[in-house]
């Protein structure tokens, strides 16, 4: 598992560094003026670059890949969100495990509709924004909430439940609050709410602050939290974190 995480980090990192190459390539071969005047604005950089390099055939191929990728990502995230809410929050937290299989499925379906509606409303609210930048914000929020817990779970045996809770909630809250207080949300012509001006955080992406804060909270929570956790439970969670064993039971349930 550690070896897989290392490979994934390097491959994904190199892949996203290619976006810089695509951006500079589009600016050099297509031109900033033509990109800004295109129907999609800055979001048209990649299709216009494909058209400049390979004509309509390459542009059509890139457009098809982009559409398929968006469809797969949206479907995967929607299913994951609905299943997580139905199983983890509704079944285990709200109902304390006292829920039938059909009831859990019904809640998952309702959650799917709710997530889809919220996504549509959010998409309408950020029309005209740079899609790549919005993706970077989503990655910053996800990394702030999840990355410290994943790294600590894999490589630090003294990591505790208190550290995980503080890391996830603290990193998530920090990222969201800093985005709301940044120029992305208000105070600028390209902000989501340009008529407001509550921007006190100067950076447009909170990751450089919220991700280290998540690591710090996870470290402090593991030091100040209870140390007398059940060793059998800790061993079971370590095996699940490293191998994924046991996830199929939750799915079957």
Number of helices: 9
Which term fits the overall shape?
A: globular
- Percent of residues in helices comes to over 70%
Low-confidence stretches: 248-253
The SS-based structural class is mainly alpha
Textual characterization of the structure:
The chain is mainly alpha-helical. The chain has a domain at 131-253. The protein has helices spanning 2-29, 32-37, 45-94, 101-125, 131-155, 161-180, 207-224, 231-243, 247-252. Helix 5 (131-155) runs antiparallel to helix 6.
What key phrases describe this protein's structure?
253 residues, mainly alpha, disordered C terminus
What's the helix and strand layout?
Layout: H1 2-29, H2 32-37, H3 45-94, H4 101-125, H5 131-155, H6 161-180, H7 207-224, H8 231-243, H9 247-252
Helix pairs in contact: 1-3, 3-4, 5-6, 5-7, 6-7
């Amino acid at each position: 598992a550690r070896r897989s995480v290392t490979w994934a980090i390097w491959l994904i990192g190199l892949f996203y560094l290619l976006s810089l190459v695509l951006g500079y390539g589009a600016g050099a071969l297509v031109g900033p003026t033509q990109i800004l005047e295109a129907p999609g604005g800055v979001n048209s950089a990649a299709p216009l670059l494909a058209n400049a390099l390979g004509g309509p055939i390459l542009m059509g191929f890139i457009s098809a890949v982009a559409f398929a990728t968006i469809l797969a990502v949206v479907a995967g995230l929607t299913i994951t969100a609905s299943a997580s809410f139905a199983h983890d929050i509704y079944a285990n937290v709200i109902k304390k495990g006292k829920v039938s299989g059909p009831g859990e499925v019904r809640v998952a379906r309702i959650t799917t509709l709710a997530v889809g509606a919220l996504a549509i409303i959010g998409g309408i609210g950020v029309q005209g924004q740079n899609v790549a930048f919005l993706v970077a914000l989503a990655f910053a929020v996800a990394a702030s909430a999840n990355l410290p817990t994943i790294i600590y779970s894999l490589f630090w045996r003294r990591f505790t439940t208190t550290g995980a809770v503080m890391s996830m909630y603290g990193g998530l809250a920090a990222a969201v609050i800093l985005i709301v207080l940044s120029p992305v949300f208000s105070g600028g012509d390209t902000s989501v709410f340009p008529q407001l001006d509550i921007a006190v955080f100067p950076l447009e992406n909170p990751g450089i602050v919220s991700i280290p804060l998540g690591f710090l909270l996870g470290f402090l929570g593991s030091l100040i939290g209870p140390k007398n956790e059940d060793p059998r439970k800790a061993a079971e969670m370590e095996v699940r974190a490293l191998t994924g064993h046991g996830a199929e039971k939750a799915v079957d349930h």
